[in-house]
């Protein structure tokens, strides 16, 4: 919502960084408790990492936002 709704790529980058931290924590806990569940979560963690790279690229190209 921050990226598209508020049109604030830098704020969206901060938000997705927090999401990545949460995702990594979840993946770590899942890995210790249930490895098949961790394997199911892993693609989402990779996807949000990719989305972070895209958001960072857009934020860097739009310094006035």
TrEMBL record:
Keyword flag Lyase: no
Similarity comment: Belongs to the TspO/BZRP family.
CDD domains (UniProt xref): TSPO_MBR (cd15904)
Record keywords, A-Z: Membrane, Transmembrane, Transmembrane helix
Family annotation (InterPro entries): TspO/MBR-related_sf, TspO_MBR
TM region positions: 37-60
Source organism of the structure: Paractinoplanes rhizophilus
Entry protein name: Tryptophan-rich sensory protein
Record has Cell division as a keyword: no
Principal location listed in the UniProt entry: membrane
Annotated localization: Membrane
Pfam families, A to Z: TspO_MBR
Topology in membrane: Multi-pass membrane protein
């Amino acid at each position: 919502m921050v990226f598209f709704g508020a049109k604030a790529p830098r704020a969206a980058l901060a938000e997705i960084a927090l999401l990545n931290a949460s995702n990594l924590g979840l993946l770590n806990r899942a890995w210790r408790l249930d490895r098949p569940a961790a394997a199911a979560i892993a693609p989402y963690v990779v996807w949000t990492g990719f989305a972070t790279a895209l958001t960072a690229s857009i934020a860097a190209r739009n310094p006035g936002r």
